[in-house]
Amino acid sequence: MPTIEHNASSFEVDEDGFLLKGDDFNQDWVQYVQSVEGIPELTDEHKKVIDALQEYYKKNGIAPMVRILSKTTGFPLKRIYELFPSGPGKGACKMAGLPKPTGCV
Amino acid sequence: MAKHETPLLDQLESGPWPSFVSDIKRQAETKPECWDILGVLELSYEERITHWKHGGIVGVFGYGGGVVGRYVDLPKRFPGVEHFHTMRVNQPSSKYYTTKFLRQLSDLWEKHGSGMTNMHGSTGDIILLGCRTEELEPMFWDMTHEMNQDLGGSGSNLRTPANCLGQSRCEWSCYDTEEVCYNLTMHYQDELHRPAFPYKFKFKFSGCPNDCVSAIARSDVAVIGTWRDDIQIDQAAVKEYIAGNYPGNGGAHSGRDWGKFDIQKEVIDLCPTECMWMEDGELKIDNSECTRCMHCINVMPRALRPGKDKGATICVGAKAPILDGAQFATMIVPFMKIEKENDYEELIDFIEKIWDWWMVEGKNRERCGECMQRFGLPEFLRIMGLEPLPQHIKEPRSNPYVFWKEEEVPGGWERDVVEFRKKHAA
């Protein structure tokens, strides 16, 4: 599996660039994902989505459904795509250090 | 990319059917990574197990679906398929093409991908098989900018809608399936590209109950053409069939001698509702008893036609077995006019009612049909604002576990046991 070096941290990731170990998550990771996911500038809104995802994942062991993410953050799906061009799965979940979404994608 | 030995696959080059192995070998002459497709497939034939890794999340910016990521689990041995992503490309209604379009698309795919395709995926998309992550955006850019062509759907969203070829070349199509399919595809681009649903959702449009796109089995909302007046009969043509001048079923059974055409045996006796008979040399149909199964029309296409008052039956909730068993779609609206005049407003309202409910109530990865089962048909009809009809069921329930609403029962549910005991001592 590839290793990503960013600033002072190194991260083990899979082919899709998802963090293999959630514990590795730190601000360097956020900055790295920002650079590959087409996000020009990190805002509080990004942080709000990341926090919501991590909190939900910690509590439930899965990523929230899109609808629940919209509900907890107050951002409609359209806004989430504006923040994360790859969308909530490939963009936001990756940045939050959650495991890769699976199933019929 | 080296050529691999493929003794097992080579066996599939003999025989009369077009061989996918020969085709891939021909493609490999210009696209060497195709040798690795054959190599990894040969290995899977030997070991009887797939060599693709689990999952894969890739895509293009702005979309949450449309690309299915795939990686080989032996990238050193088969570098040509290290990345082997699939792009789903939204096909035109009923898959009519010009060679110009196909050449353009092929050229782009030769440039960015493996050149391998699947024409088409089961849902309808043009499937472009195999490209590397870094080629996704360039391919998408070229496709959208040069060809005005978009991706199809994948993930928990509206998948690419599909239709039978409808009025383009079929006399039985009761509405313009192609037009509806195209219009709804355009109308719901957002729902198609950006997954927002509990799970996948599919539309399919068939022009008549023959259902040439298998809408009833393969879509969450199946729009199946029908009519509600009388079957049009051309008695002179009926006589031609009886005389043996027109072949039954358009000659579909000409490969074998089934004897002379017998209208009694082949049409009248096979009518599921027995609503046909001959009288004074004329064919009669009691249309009030006809369930519009298409059989007589299928057998005598030159004599019988669907009625003139056309529309569609809407069925909801078909799905494959996972999780709780396969389902065909359930009839929900017996007849709906499907016309461009009102921009399919009635159909769109119907679809959005389902979504409004299912997006709130649906559990994660619960198909609309499963959600319907969980709530029950009476509740689903209530949500949809529809009156229950006898047509909604094949047969009434045989168990007596009937739910009543409190307001339907005199006195309601609030009862006092002390009151009861006044008449019935313990």
Largest sheet of chain A: 2 strands, antiparallel
Most extensive interface, chain pair and sizes: A-B, 24 and 31 residues
Helix/strand order of chain B = HHHEEHEEHEHHEHEEHHEEHEEEHHHH
> Cα distance, first to last residue of chain A?
22 Å
List the uncertain runs of chain B: none
Helix percentage of chain A: 40-55%
Search tags:
heterodimer, A: 105 residues, mainly alpha, two-stranded antiparallel sheet, 49% helix, B: 426 residues, alpha+beta, Alpha-Beta Plaits, Sulfite Reductase Hemoprotein, domain 1, 3 domains, 5-stranded mixed beta sheet, 4-stranded antiparallel beta sheet, globular
Please tell me about this protein's structure:
The complex is a heterodimer of chains A (105) and B (426). Chain A is built from five helices and two strands; from the N terminus they run E-E-H-H-H-H-H. Chain A has helices at residues 27-36, 44-60, 66-73, 77-83, 87-95; strands at residues 3-6, 9-12. Chain A has a two-stranded antiparallel ribbon with strand order 1-2. In chain A, strand 1 and strand 2 form a beta hairpin. Chain A is globular and about 35 Å long. The mean pLDDT of chain A is 91. Chain B has a five-stranded mixed sheet with strand order 5-6-7-12-13. In chain B, strands 1-2-4-3 form a four-stranded antiparallel sheet. In chain B, helix 2 runs antiparallel to helix 3. Chain B has three domains: 7-147, Alpha-Beta Plaits; 162-226 and 310-407, Sulfite Reductase Hemoprotein, domain 1 (2-Layer Sandwich); 232-305, Alpha-Beta Plaits (2-Layer Sandwich). Chain B has helices at residues 7-10, 20-30, 33-47, 99-112, 133-147, 177-187, 189-193, 215-218, 235-243, 263-266, 295-299, 345-361, 368-375, 377-384, 417-423, and strands spanning 67-68, 86-89, 113-119, 126-131, 162-163, 203-206, 221-227, 232-233, 276-279, 282-285, 304-305, 310-316, 330-336. The A-B interface holds A 15-16, 18, 38, 62, 65-67, 77-78, 81, 85-90, 94, 100-105 and B 53-59, 61-65, 68-69, 71, 83, 133, 154-156, 190, 194-198, 200, 359-360, 364-365.
